[in-house]
Amino acid sequence: MNSIELKTLNELSDYMFYIPAYQRGYRWTALEVKDLLNDINEFTAREIEGSDDKTWYCLQPIVVKKRQENIYEVIDGQQRLTTAYLILYYLNQDFVEKKRDKIFTLDYETRPDSKNFLLHPENDVSSCIDFYYIHQAYTTIEEWFEKNEQQVSFDKNDFRSKIKFHTKIIWYETEEENPITVFTRLNIGKISLTNAELIKALFLNSSNFRTSNKDGLRRRQIEIANEWDNIEIALQNDKLWFFLCNLKSKENRIELIFKLMNDSLDKDPYSTFRFFNARLAGKSEEDIKNNWEEVQGYYQRFNEWFHDRELYHKIGFLLTVEITDIKDLYKQSSNLKKSEFVLYINDLIKKHYRNRTLLDLNYETKETKSVLLLYNILTMLQNEHDASYFPFDDYKLNKWDVEHIASKKDAQTVPEANRKDWLNDVKSYIDIEQEEGPILIQEINDMLNNQKFKDNDDFVSLYDKVTDHFNKNMDDMVDVDEISNLALLDEKTNRGYKNAVFPLKRKYIIELDKTGGFVPICTKNTFLKYFSDYPPKISFWTKEDRKMYEQDLIRVLSPYMEVTK
Question: Which of 307, 297, 305, 345 is nearest to 323 (CA)?
Fold first, then answer.
């Protein structure tokens, strides 16, 4: 069973670290060495409220395997361990030899003389590349201290205290038989140990279970491990994950729960691990049980929301548009009855839009996208015969955005290389029963035959005529930008069809829907003319269509925002 704890550099003084051959040699640059020195120097230990302890600077994990008493094989972390050694060695030079602090030792398997060389890293030894880099790092340390000691505010003794007693290493000790498999996992693709992996080791530490019943201990460890896996597997379901979260993370999604439990604002990437280390280290089996039940409580609450259709849609909306955060929702749902919680989340939506009016929204308004998302979600909820769930995963992964239903007049959005295809596409949708229809088809054919589409002025003129043909009664550019001419379209549609006339966009939406692709319900309703009087003019987006669409927007959204000023 792997174990984990925090150790100060001073606590490592009696240890010997063996750097095996599968490890990469020392390669830290001067910049990396300076960054570590600066970080430690800028750190200030603070009293931890409700504790006798102080905060500490946290080094990233050192992964080791015990060989014998006080001798460890370093699986991961030898670069920072070597750098820490060099800093401690430099600080020791201020004292005569018998007054110097004891420092841990290092032994590189591929460098037989490494132990002797590290006794005097200030010496420039060119016998191997590793010694060269170690000497360069040591020179960087010397120069950094010499420069900082010229500053009145710099206190070398204070720095010495910080690195020895207020700098802690995350000590991850593995009992796996083959350390190379651990090294491979950590270093192929540079996958570092995450907070979640470190916290898992805390929960499974045998020392955390004060019991003489070894069989019972083993069963409890297995139970936690299995329950952990079940939560992680559930969160790997993108439908659940993107309902809760906007991040495209694939690894250790259970870490979301741990971050929510950690109230610290500390920017240290391992602050969540440190939070749980303080909670669990030296505690009783009952304490471990209670903490694990709290973790399970978060997951169970999320699962309840996920399977309640109204909560799923409204919470998913709030989190997607970041009106609130999941920590606040969890807190409120813990303190309120379900009916009160539903009222609370409805009020959050209404308050968010209290200074906005629906019919004032347009293509440039930043809230338009979230309002159209809300419109789609509420439409699904209001249909009592629809048991489907809005797929937040598809919405987030496919990058749906606001687009015009009927296109704006902007011929420049059709590059010269695409103009021939654009003319061929629109030609098949021209309505020959309209007065201008036959004339437009003839003009398109003439332009294609004479390749006049390469002449910008001629193309712009014809483009405007074609756009006018499809956008009946929508000549005003401001009118085109209003919300009654806007819908959610995915990034691919926007990129490939943003300059397309209505029937071409409609064709793409139908193809996407037929092949099982996700299309927001209101976008589909719009392009399939569900709001229009029968029989609809399939190839046109008319003034009447817009009016019916606007009425539906008002019907669905008026409970949440003002319609007009």
Answer: 345
